[in-house]
Amino acid sequence: PLSALDAARRARGLDLVAWVVLLHNSWLGERHPDCAMRNAFGDPYIHSLDPAHPAVREYALALVEDVVRGGEVSAIELESPGAMGFAHGYHHEITGVALDVIQERLLGLSFTEHELLRAGAAGIDGEGVRRRVASLLEVSWERAGGLTASDGVPTQDAAALLDDADFQAYGTMRSEIVTALGVDLYAAIKGASPGTRVRQFAALNPGEVSDDARAALPRLADEALAGYATSDADARERTAELRQTMGDKPVLGMIRAIAPDTVDPATISPRVTAWREAGVAGINVYNYGLMTRRTLAAFAAIRP
What is the model's pTM? Predict the structure, then answer.
């Protein structure tokens, strides 16, 4: 399909930009659960492959090389080069208990065989962290009290875990795994197609975004995507923050032009203006195949 698309866009004077979803892959996760991330209880999350697994890394590198060799790709956008979080929105997804932000964060931590081996090699008690996470979650569900106090701060038990040295070191190690994969992806793309610009999403590792991972972005990309803004003010703030990280490298805005982000087409023009005034190099729109015709018409009315 890529070669046919490449030919079609040439006839229309368009650039070819590839949006590649890497580790967010339920089809592969269901068929290869040994390659999927696993929560503290050992349950596989089939919607997210494990970035520490050698076979997963090999697959991701082969995928991007194949894409940029399949046509004259001016830019490639890399979605989910890291592990996803717990909440996914999968069909028939049933949780069964109310979850606060800390419970969701802990459920989003992964403890695969390869991650635990990496932790052990780094002197981190990953298995101890896994047991503590599982125990704390079980206790919080049984007492139905959650792990976030009424003022939004962690409970005493949650704070004790979040502040633990091994817990923090384990999170840093997982970010380093994703960063290392990002370095290899960048090298693979440039090796196969030197002229292709590499774009990374600001949320490099959606399951556990860390300061270290965000700081690594300039090494992993030629350009950065700021993500979907929740308001016009948020668009400006995201751009300013990401431009500080990226330096003189371009930042692109994004609009999720479907519900629940966009319900009223009248909000589109102000959002485009906000992104442009913030100084973005371009704006991605998600996506023309799913939006209503009213929304599509609102984009058509905007001047280039």
Answer: 0.93
